[in-house]
Amino acid sequence: MFFLLFVSIVILQRLMEVVIARRNEKKMLAAGAFEAGASHYPFMIALHVSFFLSLITEVLVFERVISPLFLWLFVLFLLVQGLRVWCLASLGQFWNTKIIILPGANVVKKGPYQFIRHPNYLIVCTEILLLPLMFQAYFTAICFTLLNFAMLAVRIPTEEKALMEATNYSKEFKKKVSGIIPNDQQH
């Protein structure tokens, strides 16, 4: 079945990314990095695993079929995958599924990071919406989009706080960050 093959490829891609993340984590920790937000990380893993379980269950149990807009959604999905690889390549050893911060490091301001602060999170939000829509799994699309927004409401502030405290993040993103940091706390 096309759906199972397609989802299996996406899951394999995610598993390869976990291997890359673990390799990067070891390098960063050896260089003196620390993890921020460890308490919410298991919930994020549960969210992503549950997303795939929900998608597979909804499509198979409720016999969802390929969307009439599949071709357009698939093209968009491929573009998003290109952006995902661009994010990963731009961050290099700093890319991770965890929030791993190297004190004193200069934040990455190349690739998509020169345009927005968290392009990878935008990509994940888009994927969580696109994958189910490609197969008309509307419950999964709506439910996990909302759950992911809730997760990012915790994760992004945690990541930004750690970056501001340990790197040149505030300086590099001064124009974008200055509105949320009191003037006496800016570096």
Automatic annotation (TrEMBL):
Subcellular location: Membrane
Transmembrane residue ranges: 45-62, 69-95, 135-154
GO annotation terms (biological process): methylation
Its membrane topology: Multi-pass membrane protein
UniProt main location, coarse: membrane
Protein name per its UniProtKB record: 15-methylpalmitoyl-4-hydroxy-2-pyrone 4-O-methyltransferase
One GO cellular component term: membrane
MF terms in GO: protein C-terminal S-isoprenylcysteine carboxyl O-methyltransferase activity
InterPro entries: ICMT_MeTrfase, Metal_cation-efflux_comp
Keyword line: Membrane, Methyltransferase, Transferase, Transmembrane, Transmembrane helix
Keyword Transmembrane helix among UniProt keywords: yes
Presence of the UniProt keyword Transmembrane helix in the record: yes
